[in-house]
Amino acid sequence: MSTNTLFDVNDPKVLVALDFANSNDALEFVKTLNSSACRLKVGKELFAVAGPNFVKDLVKQGFDVFLDLKYHDIPNTVAKAVQAAARMGVWMVNVHALGGRKMMQAAKLALDELADVERKPLLIAVTVLTSMEQEDLAEIGLQGTPEDNVLRLASLAQSSGLDGVVCSAQEAAPLRKLVGSDFCLVTPGIRPSGSAVNDQKRIMTPVEAMTAGSSYLVVGRPITQSAEPLAVLEQINQSLAGY
Ligand SMILES: O=C(O)c1cc(=O)[nH]c(=O)n1[C@@H]1O[C@H](COP(=O)(O)O)[C@@H](O)[C@H]1O
């Protein structure tokens, strides 16, 4: 894919958010992609129409899939849900950190206990959605800045045994200091300079996000809604050479 030899095809940093309304559009789009250039994220919209077989098909095609269903429920329900996700062969799955320690520990234990899955997915927790600002947090009773809340929830996720968190890249630098180098920081709200912000609030460019300490970048509309999606992906990958 990339002509830049520093680009690591074994560890693509961009997770393309396949936020399509139907599986045909998503499949047409995926046909243009290569698993060495990106990983794929399937979220609630596409999963609701395309389902587990679609996800399994992406896995069969060789893509690492982040199943982004943001589970937030009682521990038993979430434990069973992450096991079902793992059986689809996904690379990463997420829960909401606001579900609390018992829920996250149950999810982790459920994955550890799975005997019939060869490759267990990474389990990460959403901290504060990138579409939220301090006033939105205050309205739901969370005091402090988004960064305060992200740091607190990330600590909770780490001490509950999770592999990482979803946060904004704006929190990645302080978070990296707190959680060390092995904890995965997945950052949506990525906007190459000049692209539309849409409903995101806490944004950063791809290079800024990696410099701040992100492990992986979730990019949706700047790629999928572009007139030239592959060119945008290629440009981002080129800009990330060496990370
Ligand atoms: O968990 C996520 O992936 C997620 C968490 C978050 O805080 N913010 C966020 O935007 N996302 C997802 O990341 C993607 C961002 O898409 P774009 O805004 O189009 O780049 C969407 O699929 C969101 O559901």
UniProtKB/TrEMBL annotation:
EC number assigned by the record: 4.1.1.23
Residues of the Orotidine 5'-phosphate decarboxylase domain: 13-236
Statement: the UniProt record of this protein carries the keyword Lyase: yes
PROSITE patterns for the chain: OMPDECASE
Active site residues per record: 70
Positions annotated to bind substrate: 19, 41, 68-77, 130, 191, 200, 220-221
SUPFAM superfamilies: Ribulose-phoshate binding barrel
Keywords annotated in UniProt: Decarboxylase, Lyase, Pyrimidine biosynthesis
UniProt-recorded name of the protein: Orotidine 5'-phosphate decarboxylase
Organism: Thiomicrorhabdus lithotrophica
Organism lineage string: Bacteria, Pseudomonadati, Pseudomonadota, Gammaproteobacteria, Thiotrichales
